[in-house]
Write a structure and sequence with these properties.
This protein has 14 helices and no strands. By secondary structure, the protein is an all-alpha fold.
Length: about 290
Amino acid sequence: MLSQAKPFSRPVFVSTINSCETLLYCSWKGCTMFNTRYRYKYGFVLCFFVFNLIFFTRQHVSAEDMDRVQNSLKLIPSFRFGDSRAALTEVETFIRSTNDIEKRAWLENEFVRILNSDVTYDCIDFICRQLRVIGTDISIPVLEKLLLDNKTSDMACYALLPNSSPAAGKALRDALKKTTGKARIGIIYSLGERKDHECVDELVSLIFDESTKPAPDDAKPEEMEACKIAVETAIASIRALASIGGKQAGHALSRAKVHENQAVRTAASPAFLKWADTMVQNDNGE
């Protein structure tokens, strides 16, 4: 007599997902061994069955799973690199194992609550990595605050980069005007990767800012440092414009090739070539 099947534990659950995905691939490859007459008939049926098995398995998140995630979330705020990653792994597994919008929204709200409390930088880093996967408009306000801090700006950029919401682009553009130095440079590169055309005016102004002019030989150390930061920002803006494309960006890059600062001129030439490639790829070149 067959023994009664036990419910999936978490390790078995994840293993089942991975096994099903492997089975789907092997099923399709195996069907290529049939002749043409039967390949698509049986291949389609088998792959359809395995695909549905994967889909419904991914949706299975029990109350026990939710309890484990809630307990894990209590441990995350104090996490530091070198500590046990058991709680983090539990949360990552939860994200991979469900596509349920309501459950992901619940977790995103929990992340926002944690980020608004007293947490370690390692915790912020972990949460931002998860928000890159599940982030929506819910987490944008708290990420916008992180953009303004040099220590967390890169983490927030990482989380916002794939977020297709217009609010994510606006958060980056607003932060561009409020930040300086490393934080601003990271934001500029993020806007470039997002191909955000609404920031072009601001990027052009950073390239030709008065601070980018070569500092005189008798300049004070703080003046030299300000010029260095302004030049680094201008170079980041040049590279971002090359990725964004568009006529306005092209005109700015053309002007930058005769910039007063040699470092800016040096960065402008390859950027202009990249801009031209971008325009050709978008069929916008003239």
